[in-house]
Sequence to fold (507 residues):
Amino acid sequence: MRAHSTIRLIVTTLVAAMVFASTLVLTANAGALTRSGQWRVTGQPPSGVSWYAATYAQGRFVVVGHGDKVATSTNGVSWSAHDAPAGGWQSVAYGAGRFVALSVVDARASEMTSRDGVHWSALAGPLGEWTGLTYGDGRFVAVSALGQFATSLDGLHWTITWTRSQFLLNSVTYGDGRFVAVDSADGDALISLDGQHWSFYTISSAGTPWFAVTYGNGVFSTFSPRGLVATSTLGYVWQIQSTRAQQMNAAAFGCNTVVATGQATGRVNNVLTSTRGASWVATPVPTDTQADWTAVTYGSGRFVAVDTAGRIATLSVSGYCGATVATPPRDVSGNVASGQVWTYQHPPANQGGAPVDGYLVTVSDAHHSWTCHAPVYYQPNCIVRGLSNHQVYYVSTRVHNRFGYSAPSDPEWVIPVSQWSLEAYLAPSTTTTLEVQVTGVIANSEGIYPQSPLTLHVGGAQYVCLPSPFGECVFHVARPPQAHLAIWASYTGYGVSYRSPTIDANP
Fold:
């Protein structure tokens, strides 16, 4: 039986003005030119320069900041400064034929635009404290420190589409048909398929701050100053990796590499890089340990990073950028049986620079993990045995081609059961939280689990989820009544209604 699902649900709940002339050209010293694999500062600007955002488009790097200047370069090494409207410009992007910059200061002129990145005009713009800006799917999307989202089709006329004051939004990116923003107050990822309607999901734990987010090679990556990196293929479920505890203010993707820059706060000033999204390397930048790198972008074979002291650093990327791993599968699905799980692989959206020749499946719980190497054209691809019934495991898979493994797919929960039938099972729980597992969701004749919601009835309350690609749901019910409590599950799949037997939470 083959299972497939494209929808997931987790049930869980500035700053001096620049003083150099508009004709100033910033050039690198001969010893400061970039060598492949090493960061080099490409110019030492006069005091008072403060950069906060960077982008690359139309063959040009463009850097903006707090003040009345912008800097541009066609190669990332030689820079020219130009006059611009004064403002707290903290985000910049290109789309619809123009560069757009927004201000983090809620001022009368909160926007400036340019057709070429050199000549700028101020506009009223949307009201807010704008911290992030991206362009995708024919529209700009901006986020603010006040929990606002704004969209524009032309970069001139804006609509505030959503406001939630509990969020302190720091960054937004676009990839794989969706916008993803991150928040440093509640610890959430916010997702939209159209830039107007948003939903939010906790990344790791409530209150964990997340700052920069970017997309590349099929993976969203975001960073927390608590020494965490989180990756996801769709933005709903996240894989957590540990790295150095350092605030990363910005991230960018280019030539199969993710680069994140931030504030060293007295440590060795490192930049994080990754080619897979699963392991990260710290690379030094030759500046003092107090440098605060606020933005990074990629273009024309180079990463360019900027800091609050007005410095610009460049990293040249060598090699063939077509030598790529595949993007991760969008999901991994399968079936369960007593003490085992069978998995099927779904091809990646992009196989990378070489044909896919295998998969690596990982099944894990809090204490152990099991791996299985899966061939490409055989089903089931992997069978993992020796598991415990009614234990929640997490399953992910990685694609392999001759350039290596992709990042892992988003984890899916799976629960082995002794008998495959629709039932609600009360797992060992605390006095404040009730864990209910629902297993045995019936697939259709093609082995496709229904996309319709499953409802858990707990006394008079109802809770809803969409079954995982293994036909299961896990619910955590907070503070259940300490009395007899009837629990049962129901759903309608492919025109047929199903109901599980009733159990008592407090017999």
Notes: The longest strand covers residues 79-95. The chain has no helices and 43 strands.
